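Progress report, Aim 2. The chain analyzed during this reporting quarter is listed below.
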Amino acid sequence: MFQLFLRARAHNLLGSRREDKGFKARSAERDAETDRARVDAVMVAIDTALRDAEKEQVGLSRRVDDALARASVTFGNGTDEYLEREALDNHHQDLFAADISNGQRRLKELASTIAHLKFVKTAMLTRFPNFKPPQLNS
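Predicted C-alpha coordinates for the chain:
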Protein backbone atom coordinates (compact mmCIF):
# COMPACT_ATOMS: atom_id res chain seq x y z
CA MET A 1 0.00 0.00 0.00
CA PHE A 2 2.80 2.38 0.93
CA GLN A 3 4.57 1.66 -2.37
CA LEU A 4 1.43 2.52 -4.32
CA PHE A 5 1.18 5.81 -2.50
CA LEU A 6 4.82 6.65 -3.31
CA ARG A 7 4.33 5.68 -6.98
CA ALA A 8 1.29 7.88 -7.26
CA ARG A 9 3.10 10.87 -5.74
CA ALA A 10 6.12 10.36 -8.00
CA HIS A 11 3.86 10.10 -11.04
CA ASN A 12 2.04 13.32 -10.08
CA LEU A 13 5.30 15.14 -9.47
CA LEU A 14 6.84 14.05 -12.76
CA GLY A 15 3.63 14.67 -14.63
CA SER A 16 3.37 18.23 -13.37
CA ARG A 17 6.93 18.94 -14.44
CA ARG A 18 6.25 17.67 -17.96
CA GLU A 19 3.46 20.16 -18.28
CA ASP A 20 5.82 23.09 -17.68
CA LYS A 21 6.50 24.81 -20.97
CA GLY A 22 10.02 25.82 -20.12
CA PHE A 23 12.31 27.65 -17.82
CA LYS A 24 11.30 31.19 -16.97
CA ALA A 25 13.69 33.77 -15.54
CA ARG A 26 13.04 37.15 -14.04
CA SER A 27 13.51 40.27 -16.09
CA ALA A 28 16.93 41.89 -16.28
CA GLU A 29 15.56 45.02 -14.62
CA ARG A 30 14.28 43.03 -11.67
CA ASP A 31 17.63 41.24 -11.35
CA ALA A 32 19.48 44.57 -11.46
CA GLU A 33 17.16 46.03 -8.81
CA THR A 34 17.74 43.00 -6.57
CA ASP A 35 21.51 43.38 -6.95
CA ARG A 36 21.32 47.11 -6.21
CA ALA A 37 19.30 46.40 -3.06
CA ARG A 38 21.90 43.90 -1.87
CA VAL A 39 24.82 46.26 -2.45
CA ASP A 40 22.85 49.10 -0.85
CA ALA A 41 22.23 47.00 2.29
CA VAL A 42 25.94 46.26 2.64
CA MET A 43 26.94 49.88 2.04
CA VAL A 44 24.39 51.15 4.57
CA ALA A 45 25.76 48.70 7.15
CA ILE A 46 29.35 49.81 6.47
CA ASP A 47 28.41 53.50 6.63
CA THR A 48 26.50 53.00 9.87
CA ALA A 49 29.39 51.12 11.48
CA LEU A 50 31.87 53.74 10.28
CA ARG A 51 29.76 56.65 11.53
CA ASP A 52 29.23 54.98 14.92
CA ALA A 53 32.94 54.24 15.33
CA GLU A 54 33.84 57.84 14.45
CA LYS A 55 31.30 59.18 16.95
CA GLU A 56 32.71 56.90 19.65
CA GLN A 57 36.23 58.05 18.79
CA VAL A 58 35.33 61.74 19.08
CA GLY A 59 33.52 61.27 22.40
CA LEU A 60 36.22 59.08 23.89
CA SER A 61 38.94 61.47 22.77
CA ARG A 62 37.17 64.29 24.62
CA ARG A 63 36.87 62.18 27.77
CA VAL A 64 40.54 61.14 27.64
CA ASP A 65 41.59 64.78 27.21
CA ASP A 66 39.41 65.71 30.17
CA ALA A 67 40.96 62.94 32.30
CA LEU A 68 44.44 64.14 31.31
CA ALA A 69 43.55 67.69 32.34
CA ARG A 70 42.13 66.57 35.68
CA ALA A 71 45.13 64.35 36.33
CA SER A 72 47.55 67.19 35.64
CA VAL A 73 45.76 69.36 38.21
CA THR A 74 46.21 66.76 40.93
CA PHE A 75 49.92 66.36 40.20
CA GLY A 76 50.87 69.71 41.64
CA ASN A 77 53.69 71.89 40.41
CA GLY A 78 56.48 71.24 42.92
CA THR A 79 59.64 69.44 41.85
CA ASP A 80 59.33 67.05 44.77
CA GLU A 81 55.54 66.84 44.78
CA TYR A 82 55.59 63.06 44.35
CA LEU A 83 57.57 62.68 47.60
CA GLU A 84 55.05 64.49 49.79
CA ARG A 85 51.82 63.54 48.03
CA GLU A 86 49.02 62.24 50.23
CA ALA A 87 47.76 58.68 49.85
CA LEU A 88 44.38 59.86 48.61
CA ASP A 89 46.05 61.91 45.87
CA ASN A 90 48.15 58.88 44.89
CA HIS A 91 44.99 56.81 44.71
CA HIS A 92 43.34 59.37 42.43
CA GLN A 93 46.46 59.49 40.26
CA ASP A 94 46.33 55.70 39.89
CA LEU A 95 42.65 55.88 38.90
CA PHE A 96 43.34 58.61 36.35
CA ALA A 97 46.28 56.64 34.96
CA ALA A 98 44.13 53.51 34.53
CA ASP A 99 41.31 55.46 32.88
CA ILE A 100 43.70 57.28 30.57
CA SER A 101 45.49 54.07 29.64
CA ASN A 102 42.23 52.26 28.86
CA GLY A 103 40.97 55.24 26.87
CA GLN A 104 44.14 55.49 24.81
CA ARG A 105 44.08 51.74 24.15
CA ARG A 106 40.49 51.98 22.92
CA LEU A 107 41.33 55.01 20.77
CA LYS A 108 44.03 52.95 19.03
CA GLU A 109 41.55 50.13 18.47
CA LEU A 110 38.99 52.56 17.08
CA ALA A 111 41.55 54.12 14.75
CA SER A 112 42.36 50.66 13.41
CA THR A 113 38.68 49.75 13.05
CA ILE A 114 37.91 53.00 11.25
CA ALA A 115 40.80 52.43 8.85
CA HIS A 116 39.56 48.89 8.12
CA LEU A 117 35.98 50.06 7.56
CA LYS A 118 37.17 52.78 5.20
CA PHE A 119 39.15 50.16 3.30
CA VAL A 120 36.09 47.89 3.05
CA LYS A 121 33.99 50.82 1.83
CA THR A 122 36.58 51.70 -0.80
CA ALA A 123 36.77 48.06 -1.89
CA MET A 124 32.98 47.91 -2.20
CA LEU A 125 32.90 51.09 -4.27
CA THR A 126 35.62 49.79 -6.61
CA ARG A 127 33.89 46.42 -7.04
CA PHE A 128 30.51 48.05 -7.72
CA PRO A 129 31.37 51.19 -9.71
CA ASN A 130 27.76 51.73 -10.83
CA PHE A 131 26.51 51.94 -7.25
CA LYS A 132 25.09 55.33 -6.41
CA PRO A 133 24.89 55.95 -2.66
CA PRO A 134 21.57 57.36 -1.51
CA GLN A 135 21.56 61.14 -1.12
CA LEU A 136 21.36 62.15 2.53
CA ASN A 137 19.04 64.99 3.43
CA SER A 138 21.19 67.26 5.58
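The domain at 28-73+85-127 is CATH 1.10.287 (Helix Hairpins). The longest helix spans residues 28-75. These observations will guide the mutagenesis work planned for the next reporting period.
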